[in-house]
């Protein structure tokens, strides 16, 4: 009898964590490596949020809470959905977890049976397919490449739906591409879903507040109210509030689904960190004034990276609508050989050679289900980004 579960054979370790770890190992050896693989803002958590956490500690608010979040945070989440999205929820329709990842995982664990299919548009966040597999379902990847702006079209969605489809995972703005769906583009997708009442929507809105220029964020249940009872809307405080390490994610949706997720959480992790919950109450209820200035910095960083990458022959980098990633194509570099003799036969080979020869860590497109691309996180200073892009330019110039 094998000691380890057969389920482990269905999943793989996170490639983003793998590349970040490899970069850190090279740094520890004394190499001047620039890491652009981690998906977290370089901003510090705002002072009002930190003060709320300290106040909670000093007031002794350090005990267990309800398994899926305390009432004060659930009320703040309900207020946020009403304020930002025009969606009305009761606290009994809200679940709070240890990051958005746990909330997504709980939802899939609570609903998937063997044979159930989950549509996952590619490129996708690396964890979506593996969470589906861990929960016993079958991920159905639908490739949405550069020719559609990395957006799923209604025709693609219609073709992917079968009688076994249980969920569509939807993410806008997207990790890894930063592509967002306009109201009309999302309405075209929700019109398809209206024709298939057995399909539920898992909307990952984690990058909601990181939206730039003319792009206006919208979410499925907001665009099509008829899908309200079939939508789990997931969000969190990690990105917009620079609280990645505080580990708070949340979702709102059908009461029976939330109750099922609560049951799972009560027998696995129980409540998220109490101090982080109090900090999140302040994040959602307190001032939002720092979001716009932070976004202005992100736009400058985005434009710098896009401009410098598009100067490289063989590289095409679309302009993202939001988040803090770019996802350039390297189709024009495949088949070339690096200065050290590495044949660039895939985006994985490109990323490895770029790290080893150019001292820049990026994540290869295969990890996100669509090749040949790579992902850069531009959530770091302009000086670091400029130096990194110069190194990428130099590395690509050496390809023959």
Structure description:
There is one protein chain. This protein has 400 residues and is α/β, with parallel strands linked by helices. The chain has two domains: 6-44 and 290-397, Aspartate Aminotransferase, domain 1 (Alpha-Beta Complex), CATH 3.90.1150; 66-285, Type I PLP-dependent aspartate aminotransferase-like (Major domain) (Aspartate Aminotransferase, domain 2). Helices cover 39% and strands 12% of the residues. The protein is built from 13 helices and twelve strands. It has helices at 15-28, 47-58, 71-85, 100-111, 127-134, 154-160, 183-194, 220-223, 255-266, 274-285, 291-309, 347-358, 382-397; strands at 34-35, 94-97, 117-122, 138-143, 165-171, 200-204, 231-236, 249-252, 325-326, 360-361, 363-364, 374-377. The strands form three sheets. It has a seven-stranded mixed β-sheet with strand order 2-8-7-6-5-3-4, sandwiched between helices. A three-stranded antiparallel β-sheet has the order 9-12-11. Helix 5 (127-134) links the parallel strand 3 and strand 4. Helix 4 packs across helix 9. The chain is globular. The termini are far apart. This is Aminotransferase. Residues 32-392 form the Aminotransferase class I/classII large domain. Its EC number is 2.6.1.-. Keywords: Aminotransferase, Pyridoxal phosphate, Transferase. It catalyses: L-aspartate + 2-oxoglutarate = oxaloacetate + L-glutamate.
